[in-house]
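Researcher: I've got a protein sequence and the SMILES for calcium ion. Could you write out the 3D structure of the bound complex as structure tokens? I'd like something to compare against our soaking experiments later this week.
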Amino acid sequence: MRTLGVVLAAAAACALAGAAAPPPPPGQNLLQNPSFEDRSGPRQPDEKWGTGFLDGVSRSPFAHWGYGGFWDGGDYDIKLGKGRTGNLCARLVCRTKGRAGICSQVILAAPGTRLRFSGFFKAVGARGGVCFVNFEGAPGDGWARIALPDKPDYDWQEVAGEVTVPTPKKAAGDKVEILVFIYTKAYGELWIDDVSLTVVQP
Ligand SMILES: [Ca+2]
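Model: Sure. Here is the predicted complex with calcium ion in place.
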């Protein structure tokens, strides 16, 4: 769903980030900073994530999460919200309707791996478009998708689903790089907290 330039930049970022990532132990949350409690802090000179291609109207304020606010003609800000747990959550706030999202760091997973996603979401006036979790990366952008509640206003609600990592057309190595995006195409606000991605044991 992203533009070619963005995809190429993402691929370059994936290659750099993926090279150093260790294989995930079973049961571990593969999403870093899952409760959005850690701030991104000053930009580091060698930072490979959250810079440039994923920045919206500002840099992502959350460590380990990128943010894009300008897709599909949209203009969305990212703000700190009162957390469902802890102190903070991520809030995507619409200025002009289009598409915006936050994106995990690169995750390495073997094709065929069954993964369970869970997250808590809240919406304020999120009408006029859908919100969803989109799985992207080496198997293709949108290789799986989990819909968020199709209603404009709701309090914290868990959304969960399972996905299976496909085999990319160009397989390279025994693990592939995947990314978890959480998108809004709606007006209003989408609040996000307490997300997890774990390997489902066969
Ligand atoms: Ca939190």
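Model: The two ends are 31 Å apart (CA to CA). The pocket of calcium ion is lined by residues 35-37, 83, 85-86, 88-89, 193 (CB under 6 Å).
Researcher: Great, I'll pass this along to the crystallography team.
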